[in-house]
Design brief:
- Two copies of one chain form a homodimer.
- Chain A is mainly α.
- Chain A has one domain: Winged helix-like DNA-binding domain superfamily/Winged helix DNA-binding domain (Arc Repressor Mutant, subunit A, Orthogonal Bundle), CATH 1.10.10.10.
- Chain A is about 60% helix and about 5% strand.
- Chain A has seven helices and two strands, in the order H-H-H-H-E-E-H-H-H.
- In chain A, strands 1-2 form a two-stranded antiparallel ribbon.
- In chain A, helix 1 crosses helix 6.
- At the A-B interface, helix 1, helix 2, helix 5, helix 6 and helix 7 of A face helix 1, helix 2, helix 5, helix 6 and helix 7 of B.
- The structure holds a DNA duplex.
Chain lengths: ~150, ~150
Amino acid sequence: MKRLPSPQHLLLDQQLCFALYAASRSVTGLYRPLLEPLGLTYPQYLAMLVLWEQDGLTVRELGQRLQLDSGTLTPLLKRLQAAGLVTRQRRLEDEREVEIRLTDAGLSLREQASAVPACMAQRLQLSIDQMQSLRDELKRLTRQLQLSPSEDSP
Amino acid sequence: MKRLPSPQHLLLDQQLCFALYAASRSVTGLYRPLLEPLGLTYPQYLAMLVLWEQDGLTVRELGQRLQLDSGTLTPLLKRLQAAGLVTRQRRLEDEREVEIRLTDAGLSLREQASAVPACMAQRLQLSIDQMQSLRDELKRLTRQLQLSPSEDSP
DNA sequence: CAAAATTAAATTGTGTACAATTCAATTTTC
DNA sequence: GAAAATTGAATTGTACACAATTTAATTTTG
């Protein structure tokens, strides 16, 4: 087994990106068993969180909130519709827009989902402060990246 | 547009998981234009980082390092093979195992990839210290989750 | 040593992600 | 006010993720 000397800065364990990628997938994996009884995948759960906050958003508005485009959201929302949790219908004011509304089942699912965050917090083994500071650091990072996507002049 | 009062702990912006998920996708998106000239996707780049560190790993070993299973790696590695960057062949000692080896092209791609981390670091707008501490915090989180996947007794 | 158990990849099926294109509906501009 | 530009979803195509199953090879056991 030949070992090739790879420079420090190319080592996997040095990469912030991999730490992020691995942590994100690990956390998602931890949600899976909690969400399965609700019949939701993790991205579907995020979409429901948004709708529970504000019902009747359009696909575009939902996409802005979750930072996902219609290519991802359209099939996801169709699955939520097939599961009887939301309805999708064109806006009368502007027929290009599709409005997503919770059904009664979709709204009442919030009760069951309500136990999820505390359950996760416990598994994460972080204090409230630790969770908040990590979360805020990540949000700052995300915001930073979206402000300077390539640093090019127009 | 009806607003439903959703409890604090169910608000999207409160979720550490969403901050992680969004940050991870943002960072991946920032890599895309840097990796495109190399002909690599982001997960392919991670696999190449591992192989540049240690050539001749099996699919299983690569999977342990990246925390990905054969369902993800097999097609990814076939694409790297199709791109002429790696070879895949059964081990003689144990024919169940498939050994992944860099081709000359795969090895020499490291020179071009060498510029990527510095370029990313600049875009992330974080000091070396900030990057390291965030990375280590995420690694600790990931390790924590993998140690206690469900807190059940055997 | 042969049957049973285990292991490593591959395969299958579902569900994201995201670029690129298409299509229809609305705005803008001339 | 009609042609051109823009916008919002949907669609298409590629590439992950990951659960579950299958297949083949190796170990373990009786």
